[in-house]
Design brief:
Length: 296
């Protein structure tokens, strides 16, 4: 099957893209073409206008800000996965990017496309939630910043207005000092090219990696596909902060994470199984992040 007839647009700036979105209310945005192209080929989507964002070079970058790292919306998964800068300062992002589908998808898929699709099973929504990222949107009236937890509002729905474009995501590195921080991304995936049945993103900061029993100063823990939006489990984080991550602390975190989860059942993973695995992966991700902090 072939797509319906449509008019093709290829802007070279975010401003031009926003103008086209104002002019064509029914337009669809094309970034990495990992989802929309399939939908159009099967006539599950039939836009009259297609705005291809791939020529907007200014949205393809990874750069330092005053206290963090900013990533342009059109940065490819492969670029993020292979970034030495991210591997050093925010390895959770690089690790999660490297686990997305296969090489063909990673070579073309983009950060903004994944965030805009807002699938709660997606790697970026989960990791950005754990890292408390800020999403920057550009519209007719300029840019605005949205906290990632306010950005995801329901299943595959975001705070982006119809005439707005995701232009970047920024993560502060201040909470994650190099040398005392460990991160880990864990997932259940039956087939490499599919969405995870469940994923967990964790970051742990310890007081002194060389101590006999390093104490957790700060923890972050978020889950993908455990609710209708990416799930940050602050009660689980609180359960391990101030501890040396002993079994009691891990069990308390697992229990809190399970209480917060509301997973939907799916093929090969019913809701009860996924809720149980939230507890398992809470322990696994936090322990791996803690261990990584001691190896820094």
């Amino acid at each position: 099957m072939k797509p319906e007839v449509f008019e093709y647009h290829s802007p070279t700036s975010a401003e031009d893209a926003v103008t086209l979105m104002e002019e064509h209310e029914d337009a669809e945005l094309l970034a990495g073409n990992q989802s929309l192209g399939v939908q159009m080929a099967n006539r599950l989507a039939a836009p009259d206008h297609l705005i291809d964002l791939n020529e907007i070079e200014d949205l393809k970058y990874i750069s330092e800000t005053g206290d963090g790292i900013e990533i342009g919306a059109l940065t490819r998964h492969t670029t993020i996965a292979e970034s030495d800068h991210l591997d050093r300062e925010l390895p959770l992002l690089a690790e999660a990017a490297g686990e997305i589908a296969g090489p063909s998808v990673r070579n073309m898929g983009t950060l903004g496309g994944s965030l805009g699709e807002a699938d709660p099973a997606g790697n970026y929504p989960t990791v950005m939630t754990a890292l408390d990222a800020t999403i920057t949107l550009q519209g007719p009236d300029g840019t605005r910043d949205v906290d990632v937890q306010d950005f995801h509002i329901a299943y595959m729905m975001t705070a982006r207005e119809e005439e707005e474009l995701i232009v970047s995501a920024t993560v502060s590195t201040s909470p994650f000092p190099i040398g005392r921080t460990g991160m880990s991304f864990q997932e259940i995936k039956r087939v490499p090219h599919t969405w995870p049945k469940l994923s967990a993103a964790a970051a742990v900061v310890v007081d002194d990696p060389d101590a006999d029993e390093p104490v957790v100063e700060e923890a972050r823990l978020a889950f993908g596909n455990a609710a209708d939006v990416p799930l940050r489990t602050e009660a689980a984080e609180d359960a391990v902060e101030g501890t040396s991550l002993d079994e009691d602390a891990l069990s308390a975190a697992a229990e809190a994470a399970m209480d917060a989860s509301e997973p939907a059942g799916e093929m090969q993973a019913d809701a009860e199984y996924k809720e149980d695995q939230v507890g398992v992966f809470a322990k696994r991700a936090l322990q791996a992040a803690y261990d990584n902090a001691l190896e820094e």
